[in-house]
Amino acid sequence: DLYLLHWPGSVPLAETVAAFEDLKSAGKIRHWGVSNFDTDEMEELVGLPSGGNVQTNQILYNLSRRGPEFDLAPWSLQRGIPLMAYSPIEQGALARNARLDAVAARHDATAAQVALAWVMAHKGVIAIPKASRQDHVRQNATALDIGLTAQDFADLDRAFPPPTRKRGLEMI
Ligand SMILES: NC(=O)c1ccc[n+]([C@@H]2O[C@H](COP(=O)([O-])OP(=O)(O)OC[C@H]3O[C@@H](n4cnc5c(N)ncnc54)[C@H](OP(=O)(O)O)[C@@H]3O)[C@@H](O)[C@H]2O)c1
Questions:
Q1: pTM (2 decimals)?
Q2: What is the reported pLDDT for 155?
């Protein structure tokens, strides 16, 4: 349904986009997207023939990795290109982070659910948590129902400050 380029590589981007479009025409994929592309790489992409057909950019984004908020997130939102947040629980680390406990207690939720709810509260952002335990899968699904308040966002901003300058896109 959605075929992604894992990260920018040494193959000219125009060739990759042309190949994606060929695969689409042949009915082998429905859509294509990219991953780990920073703003300058997205600019290059959308400037290519058919580059505007990109459906998403999958990036590392969570409370402890807020760099993309500086320019990539607003850039993507303005162009209607969804960001897909990978490792939204920081590979499980945010589930054990006590700085989330107060907000979690207000919602009778877990720290992991708050971390996910926070990512999903951002317009134009999708989250792809990985969970192998059934209770984690259930918790993550119900994180959609958590409505974070202005107070919650303010508390989380204090605990995990937003970026004040451009930082290169991080990867794990
Ligand atoms: N494009 C890229 O370059 C890139 C790079 C890295 C990852 N990814 C993708 O991102 C997705 C997820 O990322 P990730 O696995 O790195 O990190 P993640 O989703 O942030 O964290 C996964 C870890 O969190 C735990 N967890 C999940 N839900 C939980 C909950 N409700 N409470 C407590 N712990 C919970 C999981 O435990 P259990 O498994 O025990 O449930 C697992 O150890 C995957 O699909 C992966 O392929 C993409």
A1: 0.97
A2: 98
